[in-house]
Amino acid sequence: MEDVMSCSHLKRITAILLALCLTASLAQAAAKGLYSLTVRGTQRYDLAFAVLALVNKERKALKLKPLIMDKKLLGRAMLRSAELEVYYSHTRPDGSSCFTAFPSSSVRGENIGIGFSASKAIFDAWKASPGHYANIKEPSFGSTGIGCFKGSDGTLYWAHLFSSAPANHISSKSNKKKSFTVKATKSNVRLFHPPIEFSTRFPLAQKALLTSVNRGFRTSSYVFPADDVNYSIKNPNVAKVSTKGKVTPLANGRTSLTMTVKGYPGLRLVSNVSVNIDGLPAAAPYAPPPARVKLKKTGRLSKRKISVSWKRVNKADGYEVQYSTGKKFSSKKTVTVTDAGTTAAVLTRLKKNKLYYVRVRAYRIEGKQIIRGDFSAKKAVAPK
């Protein structure tokens, strides 16, 4: 989508050194409580340099000196264009001014755009807007950086940086796939995912795409890479989900999908899942596993004995205590505690002078099925 008439789609800003000084406090304030988002796409240098040719053709007609593509400004412009996928604004996603992206103090300007599919289209849009055109024909500008970033959904994001500082000329560069780490404030991350519905007409597996709605351009969204998200289904009898977010229907019923951004427990969204497919059975009732066990303490009673205790888990029928000399428990032994009221055990017949790792999980018995919870965090017990 593109619109040459709307200021929400096309923005321009110009500033001098004073503006950078005024925005320093904004950058400092935004330094806390930021999320790190991975923005993946392609840097379209071919389209960026095509814009430069059009700009310089226009400046030549106006008898102005040509703009020179500056190496640093080019890199910053590509970063700014990638940032626009998260937040389309002259304010950067971390809350700081766009001028913090400039490598030096000078007279500076920035034009941005979104959704224009060709170099001439974005240039014509900027030329038709008096504010943007003022940057293009500003006599004091001599160096420039133009960013064109193709997002994961194919949308093109554009950023044109202008500066009066001397240029370190770069003549061309090949297109390149790139991942940027973009810092964003909490207010600039707005999670969204529609309900997932399976029907007789649409029975195939669907991929869950967790997105953040772009505050500056609401028809555009940042898509979280599947590798950055943890997925879990509340009732696995209705549907299953892969580590990449692929949701597959199993039986008719309703459940929910929880998506959590790795490293940020607060970035969590729950989306409803419904399955109504002719020929599938109704989903069986689901009993969730017991809660994760919390270890209280471990201790060495002697060279060949270890004591371990943990907090009781509600609705558990027993516990499994595992111990190993390796951190990954590749070679392990298990002691089963069948009394739900017992929250301690003594491990015996250990090897002398060996470091042991211990972990515990709860289990519940449903008919002939044993439902196990997650293991506690492991604890190391040194020889006495």
The share of residues in helices is: 10-25%
Mean pLDDT: 90
Poorly predicted runs are 1-9, 15-31
Computed CA radius of gyration, to the nearest angstrom: 29 Å
Distance between the termini: 69 Å
Shape: elongated
Major sheet: size, sense and barrel closure?
7 strands, mixed
- Topology order in helix (H) and strand (E) letters: EHEHEHEHHEEEEEEEEEEEEEEEEEEEEE
Structural class determined from secondary elements = alpha+beta
Treating each run of at least 4 consecutive H or I residues as one helix, how many helices? 5
- How big a fraction of the residues is strand? 35-45%
> Number of DSSP strands?
25
> What is the quaternary state of this protein?
single chain
What can you tell me about this protein's structure?
- This protein is of the alpha+beta class.
- The chain is elongated.
- Helix 2 (45-61) crosses helix 4 (119-128).
- Mean pLDDT is 90; it is low at 1-9 and 15-31.
- It contains five helices and 25 strands.
- The strands form six sheets. Strands 1, 2, 3, 4, 5, 6 and 7 form a seven-stranded mixed sheet that branches. Strands 20, 21, 23, 24 and 25 form a five-stranded antiparallel sheet that branches.
- The chain is 16% helix and 37% strand.
